[in-house]
Amino acid sequence: MGRHIRSGYPVVPAVLALLVAFAGTGVASADDAGPAPIAALTAAARSATDGSYLSGIAEGPGAGIDIQVWSAAMNSTITVKVLRAPDDSRPAPVLYLLNGANGGTDDSSWTEQTDIAGFFAAKRVTVVVPMGGRGSYFTDWQSDDPILGRQRWTTFLTRELPAVIDSTFHGTGAAAIAGISMAGTSVFQLALAAPGLYRAIGSYSGCAQTSTPEGEAFVAAVVTRWAGNTANMWGPFGNPAWAANDPYLHADRLRGTAIYVSSGTGLAGPLDTLDGPGVNGNPGKLLAQLTSGGVLEAVTDQCAHALHDRLTELNVPATFAFRTLGTHSWGYWQQDLHDSWPMFAAALG
pLDDT grade, residue 30 (50/70/90)? Predict the structure, then answer.
């Protein structure tokens, strides 16, 4: 049955944080040698079996690196931001973090809106943030879209990128994935598409249902926001592909994967203030967070409760963190990542 947490903010007791120190992906030791030089990483990189390969690499701030990966499936180059594990000459597992509906544009990404650089600085894990894929649901589309182009994200994220990342950054082969909003649906779909690839998944303010009338409408609202056509993704409404990509319907196949699901109610919470994360004193941003962000979170909260009931019915273990307050915004997703990290650390260790 699902582990159901209902509390205020934050949702995980401080004692859980102590578990990180004992997990295999925990704090780095004083013997860590530091990051390898760029030349060494480039030399270690290996292509995927379909010919996808590391096409560019550049130092970022701190341990951050920006890499370019040529995707054979999408016939294009994808930018990927990487935070290296301490002393990346030693093997480390990988945590993939997916951005939301805008694909990380306009600085709305894990690297720009959260503290992941500091939070993971001493943890033995390589953090990977793919950029792009706005409105794509990070799935393989049936047809190229006139506006969004060729979308083959399932292939890229499950077959192409892992081969490049593991060879370049000395991966252990253990991986986990988490995503927000749109990507909170995608993480389930990716886990179902590649059984065993991800040991753990985190869905923050996502909606697992895609094939009900309400689910179809929600997906369409996300895709059409970016002028995409859902008929190019999974065909017309009612096409079998919509059900095939519905994690709610196939939840029994998630058994054996560690699962963390979180959502708020959409009601204003402690981070929905002028001095809250990402608001920066801007009344317009706060108003949008309270209105559209409140509505979106209320919808995804219903989805999360439906998934909780479904997994409980199937006796598939999962942790659900239901906040009594909070909108669809980065401050809460950062806390969700912090709160779910002990689960990821245990799974990756």
Answer: very low
Q: Are 331 and 277 in contact (CB under 8 A)?
A: yes
Token code pair at residue 212 = 């009900």
Which residues on neighbouring strands pair with residue 82, listed in sequence order?
Answer: 65, 128
Q: Extract the tokens encoding 247.
A: 């994690």
Q: How far apart, in Å, are the Cα atoms of 232 and each of 145, 152, 156, 181, 228?
A: 6, 12, 18, 21, 8
pLDDT band at 49 (very low <50, low <70, confident <90, very high): confident
Helix, strand, or coil (residue 53): strand
Its pTM stands at 0.88
Instruction: Give the three-state DSSP class for 294.
Output: helix
Looking up tokens 């869905």 gives: 203
Whole-angstrom Cα distance, residue 256 to residue 86?
29
For 94-118, the DSSP string reads EEEEE--TTTT-TT-SHHHHS-HHH
pLDDT value of position 61:
72
Q: What does the alpha-carbon distance between residue 104 and residue 312 come to, in Å, rounded to a whole number? A: 33
- The neighbouring-strand residues paired with 322 are 6, 263
User: Of 137, 164, 158, which Cα lies nearest the Cα of 65?
Assistant: 164
Burial of 129 (0-12, 13-18, 19+ CB in 10 A): buried
Task: Report the range of poorest mean pLDDT among 41-50, 116-125, 175-184, 308-317.
Answer: 41-50
264 band by pLDDT with thresholds 50, 70 and 90: very high
What does the pLDDT average to over 196-214? 97
The CA distance from 165 to 130, in Å, is 11
Length of the chain: 349
CA distance 193 to 250: 11
